[in-house]
Amino acid sequence: MSRILYMADEFWWLNNFSRYKVLYQNTTFRTSEHAYQASKFRPGSPEWEDVRKATTPGLSKKVARNLAMFYSKQEWDGPRKVSHMRHVLLAKLQTNPQLYPKLLALDGVDIEEGNSHGDRTWGKVNGQGWNLLGRLWMDLATCCSQIPYLDFMDGERGIARFHEVYYHKRDRRELQYHPEIMIQVHPPGSSVYQT
Hints:
With 195 residues, the chain is mainly alpha-helical. It has a single domain (3-193), classed as YbiA-like (Tetracycline Repressor, domain 2, Orthogonal Bundle). 44% of the residues lie in helices and 8% in strands. The protein is built from nine helices and six strands, in the order βββααααααβαααββ. It has helices spanning 32-38, 46-53, 57-65, 73-76, 79-95, 100-104, 132-144, 149-152, 155-172; strands at residues 3-4, 22-24, 27-29, 110-111, 176-178, 181-182. It has a two-stranded parallel sheet. A two-stranded antiparallel sheet has the order 2-3. Strands 5-6 form a two-stranded antiparallel sheet. Strand 5 (176-178) and strand 6 (181-182) form a beta hairpin.
């Protein structure tokens, strides 16, 4: 297998709508979609709570769209949203260790978030789009293949180890996914993660 065109069936676990709980920002979310949508708001705020309490991932997305984000659109639509998604995906892996070997098996596989609902930012429609979600999963697979399982699963130390590998990989080759959205690396604790 060298290519995944859709995050469905046996690869549904890659999809943010898959029913895997995620411990993110010291809170358990129903899905990674809930965690990502909540990251647009100040933790503990009424907006954050509304997104967190949504009964489905689709509803969490809809609720978030109808609320005023903590960040300006300009602040969010760049490296910040991608950094938050990367951390949500890392949290998904740490919360659900059974996914780690599945991810390792995908190292070197081209992963696409093919969809028919028009999302050309996180996925592709008819082969067209930035596929940021697929690219993040590919980066995670490559980096995690270089980190022993127990090191990665060791909470914050595991995330720090991941960043060491990620930064080193990026020093060797800079990834530019789209001219307007450069996936930038931000050290843990930098202001990009602060709310």
